[in-house]
Amino acid sequence: MDKIRVKNCKVIKLPIIQDGKDGCLSVAESFHNIPFKIKRVYYIYNINNKNAIRGMHAHKKLQQVIFCINGSFFLRLNDGTKKQDIILDEPNIGIYIGVELWHTMKRFSEDCILLVFASDFYDESDYIRNYSQFIKYLEHKNDFI
Ligand code: TYD
User: In the chain, is it the N or the C terminus that has fewer CB atoms within a 10 Å radius of its CB?
Assistant: First the structure.
């Protein structure tokens, strides 16, 4: 995977405990390999639409780590200045998506399963779902500091 160039983002590699023919086990732990306290876990599966596009938003406060634990998908990241495309296709390699990072997921394989660890409970008011609002938010967020 290329070096991460966008802000508030990094590659997270979970250890793999090999049990030979009996499978592999990977472990995610708060503050060890996940850089926040995990308050929510969700997963996305049964993506039957070849043209599905998910995400298309940024968060004000929420931090997440996203894994592709089966199959593959394409992740596009945009911090408002720089963009980066990443293919996720290894169950132990995830991407930390910090605050203020516009992210879009697409090109899901039929068998794709996404697993996401999040730093907080679901809160729709933390989402920025409009790209021009995202750019405005980045420009104006420090106006009152
Ligand atoms: P959304 O975060 O937009 O999904 P994605 O980024 O994968 O496209 O969420 C899709 C819908 O599910 C939206 O109506 C909000 C709802 N939702 C919850 O109710 N709780 C959750 O924890 C999440 C992640 C989403």
Answer: C
- Best substitution site from 42, 116, 117, 119 to test ligand 1's pocket, by max atoms within 8 Å of Cβ? 42
Question: Could you tell me the distance, in angstroms and rounded to a whole number, from the CA of residue 144 to the centre of ligand 1?
Answer: 30
Chain segment 35-80, per-residue pLDDT in tens? 999 999 999 999 999 899 999 999 999 999 999 999 999 999 999 9
**For the domain 9-144, what is the CATH superfamily, name and number?**
Jelly Rolls (2.60.120.10)
Q: Residue of the nearest CA to atom 20 in ligand 1?
A: 122
CB neighbour list of residue 9: distance below 8 Å, 6 or more residues apart: 77, 79, 84, 95, 96, 97, 98, 101
Q: Is 116 in the pocket of ligand 1 (CB under 6 A)?
A: no
Tokens of 26: 């990977």
Q: Token pair of 118, please?
A: 């999040």
Q: Of how many residues is the chain composed?
A: 145
Angle CA 16–109–2, to nearest 5: 55
